[in-house]
Design a protein that fits this description.
It is built from nine helices and no strands. By secondary structure, the chain is mostly helical. The chain has a single domain (3-207), classed as Serine Threonine Protein Phosphatase 5, Tetratricopeptide repeat. Helix 8 (150-166) packs antiparallel against helix 9 (191-207). Bound molecules: magnesium ion. Magnesium ion is lined by residues 28, 32-33, 35-36, 77.
Length: 213
């Protein structure tokens, strides 16, 4: 993955956050405070403004850190710090690299997930973004261990994230605002898991057919 492909991925995530703003907010209105789509869209629009002015660089780590810092400073609630941490940790893992191998990408996403878990204190099954990101990382690593090409590994990762997202529907939330609802949180898909699936899907869509580049 080149710097320009990483940049394309961030722009694709911003586009899907905008396209799904109403959907994410509807999901959050069922079990949260009805702002997830609005927050993610505002944050990613701010990110677009920042990365347009980033200047001459090919450091993917610096790009991802800029995304993380922008989300932390522009998005309120839980999603700003959590998505900010995800991108900051990915940026640290990718620091100084102008090219990421499939293994580099898997390591960066795993580092991002670990940061989210540390920050949010969420485990698998708590009905949070961790429920989409964990299967995404696991499927990515399994695909690469199988010798899958980068684009195929990303596709499998996105499919696993979608499965994890859907698996949040029957869960009772144990973290985040939805946990205040207790049993009433069951029967609704988690908005954070949904935006996390969109993030991984944007990577798969961006890099489809570009393996090895
Ligand atoms: Mg909310």
């Amino acid at each position: 993955m080149s710097y320009s492909q990483a940049d394309d991925w961030i722009r694709a995530f911003a586009a899907t956050a905008a396209a799904n703003k109403v959907y994410l907010t509807e999901l959050d209105s069922a079990i949260g405070d009805a702002d997830h789509g609005i927050n993610m869209n505002r944050g990613m629009q701010a990110v677009l403004g920042k990365i347009d002015g980033i200047g001459e660089t090919d450091d993917i780590g610096a790009l991802l850190k800029t995304v993380g810092m922008t989300l932390v400073s522009t998005v309120g609630g839980a999603s700003g710090p959590l998505y900010g941490t995800l991108f900051l940790r990915m940026g640290t893992a990718a620091a100084g690299k102008s090219e990421l191998s499939a293994d580099d990408w898997a390591a960066a996403l795993a580092a991002g997930l670990a940061g989210v878990q540390t920050r949010g204190k969420a485990e698998l099954g708590d009905k949070t973004m961790v429920d989409a990101l964990t299967p995404a990382v696991d499927a990515l690593q399994a695909a690469l261990a199988d010798g899958a090409a980068f684009d195929d590994a990303l596709r499998r990762s996105a499919e696993a994230a979608e499965g994890g997202m859907k698996a949040t529907i029957p869960l009772v939330a144990r973290k985040g605002r939805a946990s205040y609802l207790g049993e009433r949180s069951a029967g609704h898909q988690d908005p954070g898991a949904t935006s996390s699936w969109l993030l991984v899907l944007a990577a798969a869509d961006t890099f489809a057919g570009q393996a090895g580049q």
